[in-house]
Amino acid sequence: MNLTPRVVRIYNADRPDGIDDLDLGLRKTFDPAPQPAVLDPLPLVRTVQDDVALELIEYGRADNLPAALTGKFYIVPLEVALVLHPRRVDLLVTHDAVTTSDGTVIGYRALAQPV
After folding, report:
1. d(CA 6, CA 30)
2. Is the peptide bond before 86 cis (omega within 30 degrees of 0)?
3. Is the pLDDT of residue 60 over 90?
4. pLDDT, tens digit, for every residue of 31-43?
5. Which string of b and e fits 36-46 if b means at least 16 CB within 10 Å?
6. pLDDT (average), residues 13-38
7. What is the model's pTM?
8. How far, in Å, CA of 2 to CA of 73, rounded?
9. In terms of DSSP H, where are the helices of the chain?
10. Does residue 83 contact residue 39 with C-beta atoms inside 8 Å?
């Protein structure tokens, strides 16, 4: 299940960058869920430093993230996976970006599991 806010396209490992064709080497597409997983910050302390508000925030939970199920993986934003690791080993992130001729990311060659 894709819990990022955008379509995730997975391409063959040998898909070259710099080509604008979205279909060349496309292996799988994951459509986004209606509600992406997002971090739920918990503000702890607020101070002011040089006339700028500075908050100490704890990140430890995510909104819109289903409970872990054996054999099921969720594609999430990198920051969600990093904050919840190692408690959640079912979270995957996009890896090895595929880009067009102007450098726009159109997909990825792999998914990764942060450790």
Report:
1. 9
2. yes
3. no
4. 999 999 999 999 9
5. bbbbeeeeeee
6. 98
7. 0.89
8. 9
9. 78-84
10. yes
